[in-house]
Amino acid sequence: MTELGIRAPAPHPAPEAAEHPQPAARFRPKEEIALEAVNLSLWYGKKRALTNVSLAIPKNRVTALIGPSGCGKSTLLRCFNRMNDLIPGVRIEGTVRYHGVDIYAKNVDPVEVRRRIGMVFQKPNPFPKSIYENVAFGARVNGYRGNLDELVERCLRRAALWDEVKDDLKKSGLALSGGQQQRLCIARALANDPDVILMDEPCSALDPIATLKIEDLMRELAEQYTIVIVTHNMQQAARVSDYTAFLLTDERTPGQLIEYAPTQELFTHPKDRRTEDYIRGRFG
Questions:
Q1: What is the rounded distance in angstroms from the CA atom of residue 210 to the CA atom of residue 284?
Q2: Residue range 21-77, pLDDT digits in tens
Q3: C-alpha angle 217/221/227, rounded to 5°?
């Protein structure tokens, strides 16, 4: 049994290799897989945004999704915890598995999915509450019965924020700096006891010093959590991630996975010319 309350299906035998497989299709991390998309496609109304994406995300690693604007990175990220369910007119085909369980199965609760697979958004979005209540909010809603003071401190420590705010827990979260607000949002996500943390451009609105703090935090969190990050900053992907997936939309195929590999390998020896062109700055 998994935390989602249904039994994981028996593993399927690996399909035979296509005659001309894409480089992305040939690579699969050797570690335990936490999340996996299989032939995933998505439409916003009649507009297709993802095309047959298959991607395995390893446990306790940082995986970066890179690519030019409009290539489907954030859309793919939101598929991993069913955030796209909240958008009218969205249609999804294919499968997303969390530790082997199809999270889009009819008997899976999307609220529980989002508790286990948390998200940190591009723009820091603390609640108009105190720092303490920002962290405690989700735990209260979910009926947490432990010591809230200990939970708040633990999550703020994990988010590398405790030392900066421990004497001001009654202060509004909105009064913090941008970098502090983003770390507060990370602490808030941690309070729900997730297994996976999705981060959608978490540093795009931050200054360089705050960005480095978030990057250091990501590496620390990967010891306990699986991290998936969307970023336009290729230097950031190179610094913080263990694996990188490159997505692209061209005139024929929207939201396709071009290449997926260990980060150092993808940045130094890309197998696809389009990947090389992108990381060398020839487009995007």
A1: 25
A2: 454 546 999 999 999 999 999 999 999 999 999 999 999 999 999 999 999 999 999
A3: 105
DSSP for 39-95, written as a single string: EEEEEETTEEEEEEEEEEEETTSEEEEE-STTSSHHHHHHHTTTGGGGSTTEEEEEE
- Residue for token pair 């941008």: 178
DSSP 8-state code for residue 1: -
User: Tens digit of pLDDT for each residue in 208-250?
Assistant: 999 999 999 999 999 999 999 999 999 999 999 999 999 999 9
Domains of the chain with CATH codes:
24-121+195-279 (3.40.50.300)
Q: Are 59 and 228 contacting, i.e. CB atoms less than 8 angstroms apart? A: no
41/39 Cα distance (integer angstroms):
7
- For residue 203 the two structure tokens come to 């540093």
- Say what the pLDDT of residue 12 is: 43
Report d(CA 32, CA 53) in Å as an integer. Answer: 19
How far apart CA 245 and CA 243 sit, in angstroms, is: 7
First vs last Cα of the chain: how many Å apart? 44
| Distance (Å, whole) CA 211 – CA 202 | 8
> What residue has token string 């959590």?
225
What are the structure tokens assigned to 52, written together? Answer: 């047959």
Residue of 53, 54, 52, 110 lying closest to 82 (CA atoms): 110
Taking the C-alpha atoms of residue 241 and residue 209, their distance in angstroms, rounded to an integer, is 19
> Is residue 202 a contact partner of residue 62, using CB atoms and an 8 Å limit?
no
